[in-house]
Write a structure and sequence with these properties.
Helix content: 40-55%
CATH architecture of the largest domain: 3-Layer(aba) Sandwich
Radius of gyration: 19 Å
Number of strands: 10
Number of domains: 3
Strand order of the largest sheet: 6-7-8-3-9-10
Largest sheet: 6 strands, mixed
Structural class: alpha/beta
Bound molecules: adenosine-5'-triphosphate
Number of helices: 10
Length: about 260
């Protein structure tokens, strides 16, 4: 394991120390420690059920951890109210997008800015998100529920941007999207990071995409971080190649089980 503090020399924006969260008797994450530095894209890789979503929900205050501390910009935010955490500059793009289906695209975007005091800049930021995602401008007055899955993912990211965050938590942006759309979304996420300097913590099952887009990575297994390094180095590690393969085999096993159930050959 490399010394993570030496990685970029940038200040640590988000710091998790020994965090444990549970659902009743089920411990979903155990002793999770990780750092995200200013201006980087960090990723947590893990297969289904590894605990990725739980990490993000614990950071953004949706779940209170049983143990450990979370610091954002040097301030302890452990178990603080989610609205307070958004106001401090940390926005969460949830798994499955969760847009307000009966509100228009522009009203969804306005909801993202509801905690902001600098109202003058809100209109400017709406134009900014329309530059990243022109299709949302075309659909501005349509109900968000009528958008495709990919467009809803774009809206969900844009809604987070409307809070003018310093750090965005991004939960499996590739979920349910075609490889082409996934690639497009990742390219825009990287642009947002490079152009706005927004720090990003991304959790993904699509390890290949995430490792290519990110600077630093953590591998999560059964609720524990088992490996961390720069993404350049992680891509070269045999364990990671096995990890990819492991996921591929699990996918093939799941497909065989499903076909058997349906009596397919
Ligand atoms: P996925 O990619 O499937 O969302 P994940 O890595 O994000 O997986 P989590 O959703 O964080 O994993 O789940 C971690 C563990 O906690 C799993 O064992 C899961 O079954 C369990 N879990 C998650 N949500 C709940 C819940 N609301 N109640 C009980 N157990 C839960």
């Amino acid at each position: 394991m490399s010394d993570s503090t030496d990685f970029s020399g940038q200040p640590v924006v988000l710091n998790l120390l020994n965090v444990e969260s549970a659902y009743g008797p089920i411990k979903a994450i155990r002793g999770v420690s990780l750092k995200v530095r200013k201006g980087e894209i960090a990723t947590v890789l893990g297969s289904n059920g590894a605990g990725k979503t739980t990490i993000l929900k614990t950071i953004s205050g949706i779940i209170d951890p049983r143990k450990g501390t979370i610091e954002f910009k040097g301030e302890a935010i452990t178990a603080r109210d989610p609205a307070y955490i958004v106001q401090r500059g940390l926005s969460h793009v949830p798994e499955g997008r969760e847009v307000f289906a009966l509100l228009s695209v522009q009203d969804n975007l306005a909801m993202g800015a509801y905690t902001r005091k600098d109202r003058d800049n809100v209109a400017k930021d709406m134009e900014l998100v329309y530059r990243y995602f022109p299709i949302l401008k075309e659909r501005a007055t349509q109900d968000a529920g009528l958008l495709s899955g990919g467009q809803q993912q774009m809206l969900s990211i844009s809604r987070a941007l409307m809070a003018n965050p310093e750090l965005i938590l991004l939960d499996e942006p590739s979920l349910g999207l075609s490889p082409k759309l996934t690639k497009e979304i990742f390219e825009i996420v990287v642009r947002i990071n490079r152009e706005r300097g927004t720090t990003i913590l991304l959790v993904e099952q699509n390890a290949n995409m995430a490792l290519n887009a990110s600077d630093y990575g953590y591998v999560l297994e059964n609720g524990r971080i088992v490996m961390e390094d720069t993404c350049a180095r992680l891509r070269e590690k045999d364990d990671i190649k096995e990890f990819f393969l492991g996921m591929k085999e699990e996918g093939q096993r799941a497909e065989r089980r499903w076909k058997k159930k349906k009596n397919w050959r």
